[in-house]
Amino acid sequence: MGSMVGAAVVRKEDPALLTGRGTYVDDVRLPGTVHMAYVRSYLAHARILSVDTAEAAAVPGVLGVWTNADLEGLPPNRSVPGMERPCLAKDRVHFVGECVAVVVATDRYLAADAAEAVLVEYEELPVMASIAAATAEDAVPIIEGTASNVVLEQVLSATDAEEELAAAPHRLAIHLRNQRCAAVPMEPTVCLSDWQNSGLTIYATTQTPHHMRNEMAQMFGLPQQEVRVVAPDVGGGFGAKASCYPEFILTAELSRRLRRPVKFVETRSENLTSMVHGRAQEHDVEVGFDDDGRLLALRVRITQDCGGWPDATGIGLPTLTSFMSGGCYKIPVIAPSFRSVVTNTTPVGSYRGAGRPEASFMIERVVDHVAAELGLDPLEVRRRNFVQPGEMPFATQFEGIVYDEADFPGALDKLLEHVDYPLLRKEQATRRDDPSAPLLGIGFSTFVEMGGFGPTPLFEQFGYVGGWESANIRLNVDGSAVIKVGTSPHGQGHQTAFAQIVADELQIDFDRITLIHGDTATVQEGIGTMGSRGVPVGGSAVMKAAIKVRDKAARIAAHMLEADQGDVELVDGAFRVRGTDRSVGMGEVAVRAFKPHLLPDGFDLGLDETAFHEPQNLSYPSGAHCCVVEVDRDTGKVRVARYVAVDDCGTVINPLMAKGQIHGGVAQGIAQALLEEVTYGPDGQPLAGTLVDYTVPSAVDLPHYETDHLVTKTSFNPLGAKGLGESGATAAPQAVVNAVVDALSHLGVRDVEMPCTPQKVWRILQQNGS
Question: Residues in domain Aldehyde oxidase/xanthine dehydrogenase a/b hammerhead (predicted)?
Fold first, then answer.
């Protein structure tokens, strides 16, 4: 029997999803369901003077209208201690789209119409919709009870690196901006709460059902067994669905009051102003380096825009940015610090990569700046600074941040096997001499990021039970298997990848393995899916559970074969006594496992085992990407002509799915580099409140991807897998921006701020001459 791990099998999930047979929260129909709609603030910062609900409450079919005053004792939304966000605005609104009141009606559209009839009187307050405005001398605190809009400051090194920077032969100061992005999952936030005498059931679009169950139980003072959270098919998460949203709490409370199921379905425009945004960091960087381009010291001051309410997943993101600020380079001294600032905008939280893409963008842009300053090839600067394979595992200066096995130079070498770099440079020079030809730019990104998130001490800081993951495997009497996992997928392909792992360990047919996930009533305690932990942590737990089942089955087989267990081996789906033709199939063993009179005394019935995997360290996926762009001289439009990606995620479970993960992540990275940005006017009004204004990529905006893998297994988990879900989004933005800057470098251009829109690039061309 050949190994399933490493096989490019088609995903088990796809037939149902591609034929419209998936089950999403809005597909769940409960008898008597009523619908909730929000009254949202149209002002970014204002005091609430009054809320008149009388007209809305009188509309036929409306079951009630509630404001903050009507929900006395309702727990606040999960947020940062001391800055708890109420589920409905109490005295002030902090951003456009903040919830002021809710309406529940028998029909979704009726509820929305009634919400329009609620009259709110406001007194406008000064708006601070940018970091600059929120940190100005005359800025007033947005959150009552805080001293200023800087709500968190932290220095993450013992030195400010000034001595090393001053002593360096060269020193550069660079300002970089990682713009605000929206997650835009296919499925917005949706939830359905049903509070009955037996307890509370919530169907929700969440990446962390058990964590949500635990929090809701605590909020409402219920035993955990009386709260059930179900995350069925979830249409994309990208980190944004790891946050807790007010509607989860409100639908539960209103279901309790009305004694009917209450459903909320977010509209797309609501999603763009209510679901947490991502990125939104500014970096002030100083780098010291020598004549050969060796990096000697790095100082990074990070400013994180938190939006109107600090989200528990967002306020500390600069910590991860700081930890990864050295990238894959050996820099003697790194001095990061950060501040998190509240502004009158949508809250900011996790978004694919969550803090690490910001770090990767920063250090890769710094390397290109150093190369340009010295007149060196950017690849040569990278080679001179790489941490070498023989230095792995590599302990960074940050406690607990230890890079696992990797080959950064090897990834770049493999990339250049696919890219004829000298030929591209020749082509670039030829085009520069031809005014009718588009300019050519070549950009590189050699990166490392965090994956396999845990261990427990890290996750405890965010309120999770732990950083481990769980898996249960039950072998049925016909030899088929059922896996239950604590992770909850939203597109990662758990059903396929975990079945491949179990098929290998138990040597049973891949098609006879099914997966159960996302239901806290049927699945053992789990943590959730984020931080590229599905395979490294969840998959390792699956592997451990499968090994426990196999070992128990081997003991039964040995008893059946009247052999010593050490002489029994599993070959092609059957247990065989070495050196003989005596064997029993896995199905026979599964049946025997339920016959107590044919088992040794004291032997537990069944083949049903649970295992946990607690990561002792993070894993560190890495790779090398190359982007080639064409820049139209007349319009400034940037076209990605070629994109080549070499990734090292350790063990590849399924090459087809690995390629898909890279495609999706790179698409988001290219989109950030060229298209996407959430912007606000000075009055805090969102300028990208619909998909007409917020540009997501279509097929014509994206190139054909060329992908390859370098496999350097990690020793930090039994699978040797590092994770891959966030690598494309971590690597791509700087590869594209480096390419755009490279295309314009002969004009003296050293930086182009994301997104590199046609208008922005056209203006640079006009100012500098094309």
Answer: 19-126
